[in-house]
Amino acid sequence: MVNKNKIYIPMDRLGVESIQSNPMGAIKFINSLLDSIEVRWLLKPMKLYTDRFPEGHFFNSGGFFVDHDSNIINKIKEMNIVFDIAKDSNLGKKLNPIKIALYNGRGTADFCIAPLVELLNLAGFKYKHLSDSDIRKGLLHEFDIFLVPGGPDAGESYYWGLGDKGYNNIKNFLYNNGQYFGLCAGAYLPLKSLSKENKYWLELVDATDDNDLDYWRTGSGFIRIKVLDNTHPIISGICAGKINTLDMIYWEGPAMQILSDKVKAIATFYEFIASGSGKEYPRWDLLDNVLAIKAINGWYNVLTKERFEKYLKKRASIVETRINRNRVILYSPHAEFGNIGITQRLKSQSYQLITNGLFYLSINE
Question: Which one, of 241, 256, 248, lies nearest residue 351 by Cα?
Fold first, then answer.
């Protein structure tokens, strides 16, 4: 007799860590299944009835349902992945395999690409590097998601490599069947400028930074974002309760001003934490996060509390919009850089903002 119950792999937040001892390992396992079996992603908090909790147990969003299979269970046990056996259901959204185009053209920065590549490998996502010439040749249409990492400026370098043809190919990709995921400088790229002198943005998203290309106005440091929509899939496994904040590394990203109701703010800049400036220097151990240490010690343009209050506070830090029903998500802070202490870098909660974002772009509505 076929067992119709489900394997449920939770990703709930437990204090400052995931319930999973190796959250990226659990996600890598999920990615390894997508080509062969159905995996469903729980997108809202739910009471599930399980073998361990027959009376019912409340789980937050972000976990995964997989059909009951003894071989899968044995593998899960070998990997020390936390799981439950839940009553059969069709809860959640089906995850689909995705092909990711990771931009590594003239406009990107090595120190932004490297941690993103590390994270994609840790989490088992399939991706291919795409250069400026690849995009100009039209190869972007072979992919599902265009993932654009940070760069050295607010967009000028992108245009240098891509030119009008590359920009037009990106626009065609988004108007046809493509999804866009931009981080820091990659979040600047699709914005609309309030200045006719700015020829370097795609002018696709009804949001701007009213300081335009002057990314120097802020600097690098540690900030806290406030989540406005606890139900959004990209926050799955990170939020718990009504009010949620998350500490992140910030490095001169856009302070997004929303221009129409076509764009939704998912989080805002909430509070300044620390930087390499005098009395604002962090007094705690940053553990093994080299990028956090570099953001504090290795960059001359430092964020200050005054700059935060003037240029960032209450502006959107994470937004979503659609172009012809295709999703665009933009992150100003560097989720891929990991935490600013508290836990070891590879257990960073912020990593799930990246993996959740990619899973979110994979689901069909």
Answer: 248
Query: In this predicted structure, what is the pLDDT of residue 17?
Result: 85
User: Is the CB of residue 4 less than 8 Å from the CB of residue 88?
Assistant: yes
pLDDT tens, residue by residue, 20-40: 999 999 999 999 999 999 999
User: Which CATH superfamily is 100-362 part of?
Assistant: Class I glutamine amidotransferase (GATase) domain (3.40.50.880)
Q: Give residue 1's pLDDT.
A: 42
Which residues are bridge partners to 334 per DSSP?
249
Contact between 319 and 329 under an 8 Å Cβ cutoff? The reply is: yes
- So where are the chain's domains? 6-94, 100-362
Please name the amino acid found at residue 245.
T
Closest CA to 323 of 221, 207, 238: 207
CB 142 within 8 A of CB 99: yes
The partner residues of 50 in beta bridges, in order of sequence, read: 86
Q: Is the pTM of this model over 0.90?
A: yes
| Count of CA atoms in the C-beta half-sphere (13 A) of 243 | 2
Q: Report H helices in 234-335.
A: 290-297, 305-307
- Read off the tokens for 230: 């606890």
In sequence order, the β-bridge partners of residue 268 are 226, 316
282-285 long-range contacts, CB within 8 A, separation 24+? 282/222, 282/340, 282/341, 284/341, 285/341
Residue 166 has pLDDT above 70, yes or no: yes
Q: Is 185 helix (H, G, I), strand (E, B) or coil?
A: helix
| CA-based nearest residue to 358, from 115, 110, 183, 174 | 183
SS3 23: helix
* Integer Cα distance of 228 and 72 in angstroms: 37
